[in-house]
C-alpha cells in the first residue's frame, strides 16, 4: 500500500530580517519603508535601512537602539532604567589643507648692500642674490650673525677636541702613525668652520625697507 498523502509544508516567502538582539526572525512585510522594525520576541529595534544622512546607529548595552549624529562622541541612553553615558570613538580628523605660512607668502622690498638697488625678496631670514648686480648678501643682519656664531662654536669645538686628542695621544702617536690623521682631521675641520664663520661675519647686509 502506498503511504498516505501528506500535503507539502508551505514555505513562508515573506521578507524578513534577523533580530540583532535575540536572533529571532522578524517579518517586515508592509514595513519595508521603515528604517527600523521592532522584534515581537524581545521588543527591541533592529535597523533594516541605513540611518539618515549625518546620523549613525548605536546599540546601548541595555540593547536599546539609539540614533545620534556621526560627529557625536558621547550620548546618553534615554531609557529610564538605564540612563547610561556611552563614550564613542572620536571621528577621524581630516588633515588640514596645506597652508603656506604668512611669512613665506609675504614679499619685502630690499635695498641691496652692494649696489643700493631695490629688489623684492620673499623672506627675511635668508641669503639673497641681487637681480641687478648678481651679488649675494644677507637680507637683514640676523641670518649672517646666526650662521657666523654657529660656525664659530663648531670650529672652536673641533680645535679644542684636536688639542685634547693631541695631548692625550702624544705618546701613542710615536708607535701608531694613524693617530696623526685624527689630529689633522680635527684641526682642519675646526679651521674650515672658523673660515666659514669669518665669511658670514664679513658678509654684506642688505636692508629691508621700513625697518629701522
Walk me through what this model shows.
Its main location: membrane. This is Phosphatidylinositol-4,5-bisphosphate 4-phosphatase. It is an enzyme of class 3 (hydrolase). The protein is of the alpha+beta class. It folds into 4 domains: 15-49, no CATH class; 51-89, no CATH class; 108-138; 141-209. It is built from 4 helices and 13 strands. Strands 10-9-13-12-11 form a 5-stranded mixed beta sheet. Strands 1-2 form a two-stranded antiparallel ribbon. A two-stranded antiparallel sheet has the order 3-4. α2 runs antiparallel to α4. It starts with 15 loop residues before the first strand and ends with a strand. The model is unreliable at 96-105 (pLDDT under 50).
Features:
single chain, 212 residues, alpha+beta, 4 domains, five-stranded mixed β-sheet, 4 helices, 28% helix, elongated, Phosphatidylinositol-4,5-bisphosphate 4-phosphatase
Amino acid at each position: 500500500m502506498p503511504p498516505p498523502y501528506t500535503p507539502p509544508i508551505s514555505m513562508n516567502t515573506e521578507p524578513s530580517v534577523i533580530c540583532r538582539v535575540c536572533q529571532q526572525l522578524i517579518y517586515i512585510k508592509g514595513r519595508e519603508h521603515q528604517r527600523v522594525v521592532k522584534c515581537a520576541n524581545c521588543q527591541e529595534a533592529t535597523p533594516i535601512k541605513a540611518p539618515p544622512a549625518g546620523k549613525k546607529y548605536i546599540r546601548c548595552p541595555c540593547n536599546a537602539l539609539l540614533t545620534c549624529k556621526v560627529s557625536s562622541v558621547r550620548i546618553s541612553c534615554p531609557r529610564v532604567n538605564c540612563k547610561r553615558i556611552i563614550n564613542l570613538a572620536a571621528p577621524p580628523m581630516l588633515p588640514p589643507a596645506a597652508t603656506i605660512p604668512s611669512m613665506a607668502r609675504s614679499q619685502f622690498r630690499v635695498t641691496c648692500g652692494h649696489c643700493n638697488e631695490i629688489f623684492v625678496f620673499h623672506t627675511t631670514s635668508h641669503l639673497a642674490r641681487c637681480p641687478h648686480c648678481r651679488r649675494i648678501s644677507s637680507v637683514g643682519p640676523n641670518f649672517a650673525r646666526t650662521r657666523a656664531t654657529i660656525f664659530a662654536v663648531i670650529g672652536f669645538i673641533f680645535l679644542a677636541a684636536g688639542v685634547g686628542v693631541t695631548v692625550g695621544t702624544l705618546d701613542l702617536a710615536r708607535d701608531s702613525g694613524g693617530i696623526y690623521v685624527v689630529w689633522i682631521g680635527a684641526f682642519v675641520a675646526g679651521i674650515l668652520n672658523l673660515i666659514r664663520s669669518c665669511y658670514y661675519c664679513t658678509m654684506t647686509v642688505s636692508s629691508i625697507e621700513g625697518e629701522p
